[in-house]
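<goal> How does this chain fold?
<sample>
Here is the protein in question

***
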Amino acid sequence: MSAEQVTVYSRPGCPFCMSLRAGLQRSGLEFTEVDIWQDPEAAGVVRSIADGNETVPTVVIGDWKAVNPSTREVVAAVAEHAPHLLPA
């Protein structure tokens, strides 16, 4: 089963989040960004992935999850797990 979206969990002021956001925007990849400081459920998702920590950016693409991935890693994961989400 393929993923239906790329979800990037972030928080305001996070330089790693800003860097990933910029890289994904340059790549043309569409993604949904969720602020873990505004969404307690999202913070729980991140803690479940990041060994109890609220480390961001955390990215989820279907069953694929990564803490602080590079743009290249995210695009490669989309190519593998949800190629239909790649920009044309």
